[in-house]
Amino acid sequence: MKVAVLMGGWSAEREVSLTSGHGIAEACRRLGHDVTEIDMDRDVAVRLAAAAPDVVFNALHGNPGEDGSVQGLLDILGLRYTHSGVTTSAIAIDKQLTKRVLEPLGIRMPAGRMVPSESLYQADPLPRPYVLKPVNEGSSVGVAIVTEDCNYGNPIRREVPGPWGEFSELLAEPFIAGKELTVAVLGDEPLAVTELKPVKGFYDYDAKYTDGLTIHECPAQLPADVEASALAMALAAHRGLGCRGTSRSDFRWDPALGEAGLYLLEINTQPGMTPLSLVPEQARYRGISYDQLVQRLIDAALETGAAG
Predict the structure, then answer these.
(1) CA distances from 248 to 44, 82, 156, 184, 187 (A)
(2) What is the pTM of this model?
(3) Which residues of the chain are in CATH 3.30.470.20 domains?
(4) pLDDT tens-digit profile of 60-116?
(5) Of 58, 63, 139, 247, which is the active-site residue?
(6) Residue 13 catalytic?
(7) Which CATH architecture has domain 92-108+177-303?
(8) Cross-strand bridge partners of residue 255
(9) Which of 81, 203, 209, 290 is catalytic?
(10) Residue 272 annotated in active site
């Protein structure tokens, strides 16, 4: 089979995408496929047409590969591709839109609101501690936790580095104390719950992609009702948004509140496939090798067809 692996691009997650893409390409070669690796640029449509693949493995992270733009292009070209389609991708990349879809389904998420970055220099939008994040970035890009004793100032000082200097608007949410959890869904089945334990600080971009900075406990040691709830919420989010192939849902859990302290933060429609990534790790726990995972995602794309 001719497989084009689409990777790289120009988002803040370019390097992670390249690592994912190269790993996927090697797995495809081990599986016997004819592989073309494409580092996405503005000529991507021409390069895809020249490659004429049977399927495109979308290994892009961030915009425009994860927000519906590339999915729309692939639909126009009539190419089958892995992961979610246009509408699902466009909603899931936007944390506020995701809330609007999932909260009516009974999925517990932190209350949040969009705030102009300029307003942060006058007053806090929420009682401290709270979290500020760009509404459409992944991998914890641009996340800041604002506490009473942080060095951002009170109010936040304009000259202090932070997402307020990079984005005109930010999503403000209450900070949920406790544990960082994640659940991958493959096909229509949640795989496991992993607890993420950063060695220091919080689970930011460096902690996610630097070996040794985060301990992954898979499966997480949780009360049975919390584990069951996390698995159920991840599957409900996957289905509610119309995800296909695989997704990964990220949670915070406050043990002091029991099951009621479990909150879905966001859902990732194109999770990483690097050596440190969580979907391959949970698949391994369930007896699915990396190569088998890649093939299952390709099979799902072929079954679904080109339309998003």
Answers:
(1) 27, 15, 32, 4, 12
(2) 0.91
(3) 92-108+177-303
(4) 998 999 999 999 999 999 999 999 999 999 999 999 999 999 999 999 999 999 999
(5) 139
(6) yes
(7) 2-Layer Sandwich (3.30)
(8) none
(9) 209
(10) yes
Catalytic residue selected from 252, 268, 277, 281: 268
E strand or H helix that includes residue 255: none
- Selecting among 9, 68, 272, 308, the annotated active-site residue is 272
pLDDT > 90? residue 200: no
Yes or no: say if 3 and 33 are a contact pair by the CB < 8 Å rule: yes
The DSSP element (H or E) to which 206 belongs, if any, is helix 205-209
Residue that is written with structure tokens 């391994």 in the block: 284
Told to judge if 268 belongs to the known catalytic residues of this protein, a careful annotator would answer yes
- State phi, psi for 145 to the nearest 5 degrees: -100, 120
203 DSSP assignment: S
Q: Active-site residue 209, yes or no?
A: yes
Q: What is the reported pLDDT for 140?
A: 62
Fold classification of 113-174 is Dna Ligase; domain 1 (3.30.1490)
Catalytic site includes residue 290:
no
- The secondary structure of residue 65, as a DSSP letter, is T
For 220, residues 6+ apart whose C-beta sits below 8 A from its C-beta are 179, 181, 192, 193, 194, 195, 227
DSSP 66-90: SSSHHHHHHHHHT--BSS--HHHHH
Report pLDDT digits (tens) over 155-188: 999 999 999 999 999 999 999 999 999 999 999 9
For 2-83, which CATH class? alpha beta
Residues 238-288 have pLDDT tens digits of 999 999 999 999 999 999 999 999 999 999 999 999 988 999 999 999 999
Percent of the chain residues topping a pLDDT of 90: 88
* CA dist list (Å): 112 to 179, 250, 269: 19, 16, 21
Annotated catalytic residue 139 = yes
Distances in Å between the Cα of 193 and the Cα atoms of 150, 169, 231 are 31, 32, 7
> Is 261 one of the catalytic residues?
no
139 or 256: which leads in pLDDT = 256
